[in-house]
Amino acid sequence: MGYFMDKSEKISIIMSTYNEDVKLIKQxxxxxxxxxxxxxxxxxxxxxxNNIKCLKYLKVIKExxxxxxxxxxxxxxxxxxxxxKAINVSSGDYIARMDADDISQPxxxxxxxxxxxxxxxxxxxxxxxxxxxxxxxxxxxxxxPYNEE
Length: 149
Known about the structure:
This protein is an alpha/beta fold. About 30% of the residues lie in helices and about 25% in strands.
């Protein structure tokens, strides 16, 4: 049985940066911009204006991509408050959470959205591989969350 996925439904990807290395942020942002599901907006909150390299990179990305929103906190407000700030400006039908030092497979959003629709769910987790800064797999796939509770 096939399932219909309405490609007009927008996914808002929320991310907050603090003190991550700009190399990691570039990989993370790139993995979101290369998703196979294209109706997305990437909302990035910079929670550390002292991270000059990061801030400079994020401003360039915002200028290059019309689906990127950049929010800059005047002072550090923490991860939860920064993510809530991103949610407040989101315009998507769905919210996807992304860490600034994570890399997603290109099909991530498409597969997650299809799974949500197919199973009539409100929330999905993911499977992960823990990697080092060179992309070497440290730990094989782990399922999060572990159970429905």
